[in-house]
Amino acid sequence: MDEEKAVWEDRSIKFDIPQIYTKLRGGEVLYDVFDYIEDTKGNPNERGRIMVTNLRIIWYALFNSKLNLSIGYNCFLTMTTKTVLSKLRGTTQALYIFTSNHNSRFEFIFTNMSLSNGRHFSLIFDVYRLYQQSFLYRELKLRTSILQSKQLKILPQEQVYSTIQGIWNLSSDQGNLGTFVLTNIRLVWYADINEAFNISLPYMQIRSIRVRESKYGPALVVSTLDTAGGYVLGFRIDPPERLREVYKEMASLFAIYSSTPIFGVFYERKQEKVDREDDQLRIDNIEEIDNTKTAEINTNFTNYLADDSTSGQREPFYCKQLGFAMEKIRDGFTLKDLWEVIPSQ
């Protein structure tokens, strides 16, 4: 696997990627979309949209798609929501995300700009929790609890294809005899005399699989990506014909996984009904807003409240249209401007 093709979506923060909302990678699943969301700290007053996938959240501005963010779940430190009071939006909800990436820390604040949209951000918390609980699908693990009664603990949607005994791990001078388990998600090796001495390596973290000469003769060599420590793992398999068979099977499983990866985040929505195909939200069903259209939620009322140019209260008068006394309307506004939710023009 080329380094540039490696999965970065869950472990990076990226800004302003062209057409990011149409570029989900293979195996990435779109779970939900939140409209009328403002990136309050980075792009205030820009109405945007949040897309929630199994690897990250994506925010982009609706009227300037060059403004966008991609925040991988692996970068999250803490996440919380707060009820905030704004002159422009009234009482609404804000999502606070604290992150770390490449020795830099970022805080993101996403605010719900719609007064009529009562949706909460709880789905993002649910998906992130599932991501945290599924590290074995994506991370190299050494000497961890992956076996029970000498049997591999099978993960959801994991299938075991081969269990191969008599595999020498060449990480030490004397070598250790053990067993290979090849699945559709990872390769596992564990020592026969000590099950705690084991390796669980997802295909997602493999750079290459080769057969090379070593001081022990021909060996199966597996190199990992830098995100997995950049290890070079060597295994001896006798006789050479068996080595070639194991190599071909492992290379085939690696190629199949690379085309359709499984990241381990399986989320099922139980309440809200959305437009789905195969029980998943499709990017094709996300309607893009035409920048040339002017029909949108009325902002006259919020602008009227936000203007502090007039100090003190204005004199009241009797309004025949409403049938009660009200404060005199400021110049430049009409009763119709403040009353209707959606502008008639």
General description of the model:
The longest helix is centred in the C-terminal third of the chain and has 20 residues, at 240-259. It is built from 4 helices and 22 strands. The radius of gyration is 28 Å and the shape is elongated. Mean pLDDT is 84; it is low at 272-279 and 289-297. Strand 19 and strand 20 form a beta hairpin. The chain has 3 domains: 3-134 and 264-285, PH-domain like; 137-259, Pleckstrin-homology domain (PH domain)/Phosphotyrosine-binding domain (PTB) (PH-domain like); 300-339, no CATH class. The two termini are 55 Å apart. It has 345 residues and is mainly beta. The strands form 5 sheets. It has an 8-stranded antiparallel sheet, with helices on one face. Strands 9-15-14-13-12-18-17-16 form an 8-stranded antiparallel sheet, covered by helices on one side. Strands 10-11 form a two-stranded antiparallel ribbon. Keywords: Cell membrane, Cell projection, Cilium, Cytoplasm, Cytoskeleton, Membrane.
Tell me the distance between the termini.
55 Å
> Shape from CA axes?
elongated
DSSP summary: helix tally? 4
Number of domains: 3
Low-confidence stretches: 272-279, 289-297
CATH topology of the largest domain: PH-domain like
Q: Which strand order do you get reading across the main beta sheet? A: 1-5-4-3-2-8-7-6
For the record, the CATH architecture of the largest domain stands as: Roll
Major sheet summary line? 8 strands, antiparallel
User: Which range best describes the helical content: under 10%, 10-25%, 25-40%, 40-55%, 55-70% or over 70%?
Assistant: 10-25%
> What's the overall average pLDDT, rounded?
84
CATH superfamily of the largest domain: Pleckstrin-homology domain (PH domain)/Phosphotyrosine-binding domain (PTB)
Q: Based on helices, strands and strand pairing, what is the structural class?
A: mainly beta
Strand tally, please? 22
Oligomeric form:
single chain
Element order: H for helix, E for strand: EEEEEEEEHEEEEEEEEEEHEEHEEH
How much of the polypeptide forms β-strand, as a percent range?
35-45%
CATH class of the largest domain: Mainly Beta
The whole-angstrom Rg is 28 Å
Subcellular location: Cell projection, Cilium membrane; Cytoplasm, Cytoskeleton, Microtubule organizing center, Centrosome, Centriolar satellite
Protein name: Bardet-Biedl syndrome 5 protein like
Pfam families: BBL5
GO molecular function: phosphatidylinositol-3-phosphate binding
